[in-house]
What does this fold into?
Amino acid sequence: MTANYFKTYPDKDGFYKEYGGAFIPPVLEKEMKKIADAYFTISKSHNFITELRSIRKHYQGRPTPVYYCNRLSEKYQGRIYLKREDLNHSGAHKLNHCMGEALLAKYLGKKKLIAETGAGQHGVALATAAAYFGLECEIHMGEVDIKKEHPNVVRMKILGATVVPVSHGLKTLKEAVDSAFQAYLQDSENSIYCIGSVVGPHPFPMMVRDFQRVVGIEAREQFLDMTGELPDSVVACVGGGSNAMGIFSAFLDDEECNLYGIEPLGRSQKIGDHAATMTYGKPGTIHGFKCYLLQDEKGDPAPVYSVASGLDYPGVGPEHSMLRDLKRVNYDVISDEECIDAFYELSRLEGIIPALESAHAVAYALKLAQKNPQKSILVNLSGRGDKDLDFVVDNYGLPK
Ligand SMILES: *Cc1c(COP(=O)(O)O)cnc(C)c1O
It folds into this structure.
């Protein structure tokens, strides 16, 4: 890594080495270029930076703490620390980039935020940001997901968003993406499309990373203050990869820090049973960008599964794809079962109920701790588990 890392990646066309870019129809390409140009100017302006800082502090409740897990560390022999993104307003890291995207919309004079959502977490975070800024919010969601994720649908509506049901095809995330892009193209004058992770066409992987960098900047400083040293390892779960990029970005130059991105192994190694893109995928194109991709024989995105619905995406951010090839980040997997065990361990030993997504990172930290006694591990606890309680108890029961 070089000191110029953030100037080098992405390049002006949105590439991280061979990954990323914008493989989209010409009309959309024009719109993305407009957003990229505006972002470069606005994000450097004093007013934008000052307003975003104030929002982080007074509305989101940042900085979120770094916490040393006493009981967990004692039991597993390592030194385990959590960056508490579960304490960020609305209960996860997603608000970090949604507030940034909505603030950009405001500076661009847009009236409406448009997005798709799968499990509903991105929809809820964006609806929160829209309420704060007094913007309209239109969330496209497959009818299958609307049934499955009822509480999040209700949340979005309470927050004032319109939920547009998508009834074609498999009626899930992929169709919701198409529908949201369609709606955006019909009204790109007044609206802006807000992507929910470090994925999609340029400039989104870059913008979302930049808005999430606050997590890493805070965590590195807090960790140094607490311990006088850098962590031996930093661990984060990877769906699209936004919470992981956020925390990793501050440690890329610290070669002594081992970085671990954790993907879901789900039920098994069979295609359709997991979403372990880095382990089982190969380079391909999805949603307008190039990345590691889980593919069927025809090269189309493969079906994916995880107990954590925020992690079941067949692609992954282009920057992660590059960091894998550069071997700067290690990517590994955690199964549903290991995730559920970690969910209960953290709850019982520390009084912190993690999101099932975040529990993948916790599970990996427990393995690392047992293998490397006394070494320090910083985990990005991307969200809280309230949304998962009914699901876990219904499917796995309470522990003995
Ligand atoms: C959405 C979500 C994730 C996965 O998204 P990334 O972009 O990979 O960070 C992880 N944790 C929580 C709590 C989420 O809501």
Notes: The first strand starts at residue 15 and ends at 16.
